[in-house]
Design goal:
The chain is α/β, with parallel strands linked by helices. The chain is built from nine helices and 17 strands. 45% of the residues are buried. The mean pLDDT is 93. Its cofactor is FAD.
Length: 314
């Protein structure tokens, strides 16, 4: 019978919503148990959050100063040790998960399944390939554990609040590598919603024209309480930092509302928003590919249209 181990992602003592999405994927396996593993220096608050996610059987914790920062080289051996007896190990397909999961798979001697967007059976999954232009069905060997990253944008977050799973502390007996050490974390501070979890996102592209002009995107996003994103072209042009990039080589998101401003709609970008609820495009080129996927489109000068929209909101 299947038993799924979900690796919790957290930052600053708070659980990331991607963990609840990975639990939804674990529930689709229809196994006998779903356990969440929390590795941190201080685990209590994070474990308490994880215990409230519906469907979670147990929360397992490994506490220690070596887990104060999410270093894949340090976490992976511990995860592999705890994973003994589990049929599946699920990790969110975020920067954290893409860093940790390959090491866990290598330590367990299995091939990783990446970006799972659908569970067809206990060992059969669907995932996107070719920049999302095709969906492939992957069948894992049932004789071995499945290590998979879960495409967060394709799964709803499991409900929280109704459950209160037991918490169990573990102390795996394993020698940890000493060749990797934490130096520092540089993290941009913002009062805006987080790009990967926001329900509304406003993104700007090359059509915005300059770094200075991008202020119109920030102001519009602030007016409607949205996160800010950007196309790769805007990032490459230096309009905004790379952590705002949406697309195949950036962040994969699934907001309820996505507004693309001055974005032509390259395949790489569309891959990052394919699971968005409603897509609105604003572009002066009526032939731009973004209009093929948009639910609503406005053709015209963004520097005239956005103020008009803001006035309508006011």
């Amino acid at each position: 019978m299947s038993k799924v181990l979900v690796i919790a992602e957290h930052l600053g003592g708070k659980l990331n919503s991607s963990t609840a999405r990975a639990v939804s994927a674990a529930a689709a396996v229809k196994g006998e148990a779903i356990d969440v593993l929390v590795l941190a220096d201080s685990v209590d608050a994070i474990a308490a959050e994880a215990a409230k996610i519906d469907g979670v059987s147990r929360v397992l914790t490994v506490a220690g100063p070596e887990n104060a920062h999410p270093l894949a080289a340090v976490l992976a051996p511990q995860i592999a040790k705890v994973a003994t007896g589990y049929s599946h190990v699920f990790v969110p397909s975020t920067t954290f998960g893409k860093d940790v999961a390959p090491r866990v798979a290598a330590l367990l001697g299995v091939a990783q399944v990446s970006d799972v967007m659908s569970v067809e059976g206990a060992h059969t999954f669907k995932r996107p390939i070719y920049a999302g232009n095709a969906i492939i069905t992957v069948e894992a060997n049932p004789a071995h554990a499945v290590v998979a990253t879960i495409r967060s944008a394709s799964w709803p977050a499991a409900a929280t609040g109704a459950s209160n799973a037991p918490v169990e502390a573990l102390a795996p007996d394993i020698a940890l590598p000493a060749h990797t050490r934490f130096v520092e974390l540089k993290q941009g501070a913002s009062d805006r919603p987080d790009l990967q979890s926001a329900s509304k996102v406003v993104s700007g592209g090359r059509g915005v024209g300059s770094k200075e002009n991008f202020d119109i995107i920030f102001k519009f996003a602030d007016k409607i309480g949205a996160a800010v994103g950007a196309s790769r072209a805007a990032v490459d042009a230096g309009y905004v930092p790379s952590d705002l990039q949406v697309g195949q080589t950036g962040k994969i998101i699934a907001p309820e509302l996505y507004i693309a401003i001055g974005i032509s709609g390259a395949i790489q970008h569309l891959t990052g928003i394919k699971d968005a609820g409603t897509i609105v495009a604003i572009n002066k080129d009526s032939e731009a590919p973004i209009f093929e996927v948009a639910d609503f489109g406005l053709v015209g000068d963004l520097f005239k249209l956005i103020p008009d929209i803001e006035n309508a909101i006011d």
